């Protein structure tokens, strides 16, 4: 009787094992067969052009969410581009996808390095750490967050990964900008004026269209202008000469896509070397 019972138990365990493997294989096969629509693929290609992961979100990310289903986003968490894996995970968070912990555990060894950006701050971290932050025990409104013991366990792994991240070479910002600026721009002062979160932003926006004020001192010109730009913080003041006119510019330092919804207004004083009579009538923000 005992032998018969043992045989039945072994037989049942084998059935469950093979059934489990079969279900897992079917799930993996289904994921491999999943295909993105042209609209989703175009949104992914567009989002891939951004160098950093913007934690405030961007229009390109919003465009992806408009066309991608949860199934698409789960599929994209396995994308070869680590930025897309993170954006897809973020999309699943927004959609309140119930199996986020499963996605996280699939990326427990994902040591790919990414650069995140939130307004003026950012950090280099790993995909695993990016996903782990969602499950922080003090994260408000998260139903499936980890306990402190669980979080600390995985955070130790995340920290060990971060130790292997090579530091980025720190460039001399002032030297780099000086190379790009016109030699006649002797000096400038830039002042933060407003951003799109301010209640009076629309009122302050009128300053951008305000006539440029300038005063001439012998061989120098002092001009003041207002610029509205995106919140990428990659602009610097510059000037350009066109015949008898000086063009005041707030120029992009890096020519990469930046479409953050966050807008800022900057006030800039230009001190320009100019021994001739010139006109200052145009402002360009690039």
Give the biggest beta sheet.
4 strands, antiparallel
> Please, what is the average pLDDT?
83
How does the helix and strand content classify structurally? alpha+beta
Query: Helix count?
Result: 10
Given as residue ranges, the uncertain stretches (5+ residues, pLDDT < 50) are: none
Strand order of the largest sheet: 4-9-6-5
Task: Note the beta-strand portion.
Answer: 25-35%
Assign an overall shape.
Answer: elongated
Helical amount? 25-40%
Q: What distance separates the N and C termini?
A: 85 Å
H/E order of the elements? HHEHHHHEEHHHEHEEEEEE
| Total strand segments | 10
The radius of gyration computed from the alpha-carbon positions, rounded to a whole number of angstroms, is: 27 Å
Describe the structure.
This protein is of the alpha+beta class. The protein contains 10 helices and 10 strands. It has helices spanning 2-33, 38-48, 59-67, 70-76, 82-94, 100-106, 127-132, 148-162, 173-180, 201-205, and strands at 53-54, 113-118, 121-126, 185-195, 213-217, 220-230, 235-242, 245-252, 263-273, 279-285. The longest helix has 32 residues, at 2-33. The mean pLDDT is 83.
Task: Give a quick summary of the entry.
The chain is of the alpha+beta class. Helices cover 40% and strands 26% of the residues. It has helices at 2-33, 38-48, 59-67, 70-76, 82-94, 100-106, 127-132, 148-162, 173-180, 201-205, and strands spanning 53-54, 113-118, 121-126, 185-195, 213-217, 220-230, 235-242, 245-252, 263-273, 279-285.
């Amino acid at each position: 009787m005992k032998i018969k019972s043992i045989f039945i138990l072994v037989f049942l365990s084998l059935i469950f094992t093979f059934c489990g493997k079969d279900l897992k294989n079917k799930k993996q096969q289904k994921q491999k067969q999943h295909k993105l629509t042209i609209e989703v693929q175009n949104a992914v290609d567009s989002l891939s052009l951004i160098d950093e992961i913007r934690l405030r979100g961007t229009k390109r990310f919003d465009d992806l969410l408009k066309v991608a289903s949860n199934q698409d986003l789960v599929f994209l968490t396995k994308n070869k581009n680590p930025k897309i894996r993170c954006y897809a995970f973020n999309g699943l968070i927004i959609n309140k996808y119930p199996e986020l912990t499963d996605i996280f555990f699939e990326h427990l060894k994902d040591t790919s390095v990414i650069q995140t950006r939130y307004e003026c701050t950012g950090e280099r971290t790993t995909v695993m750490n990016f996903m782990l932050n969602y499950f922080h025990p003090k994260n408000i409104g998260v139903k499936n967050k980890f306990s402190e013991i669980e979080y600390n366990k995985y955070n130790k792994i995340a920290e060990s990964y971060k130790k292997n991240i090579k530091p980025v070479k720190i460039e001399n910002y002032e030297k780099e900008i000086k190379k790009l600026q016109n030699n006649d721009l002797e000096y400038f002062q830039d002042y933060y004026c407003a951003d799109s979160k301010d209640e009076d932003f629309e009122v302050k926006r009128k300053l951008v269209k305000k006539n440029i004020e300038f005063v001439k001192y012998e061989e120098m010109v002092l001009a003041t202008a207002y610029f509205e730009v995106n919140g990428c913080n990659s602009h610097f003041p510059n000037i350009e000469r066109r015949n008898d006119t000086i063009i005041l510019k707030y120029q992009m330092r890096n020519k990469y896509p930046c479409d953050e919804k966050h807008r800022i207004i900057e006030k800039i004083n230009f001190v320009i070397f100019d021994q001739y009579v010139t006109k200052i009538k145009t402002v360009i923000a690039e």
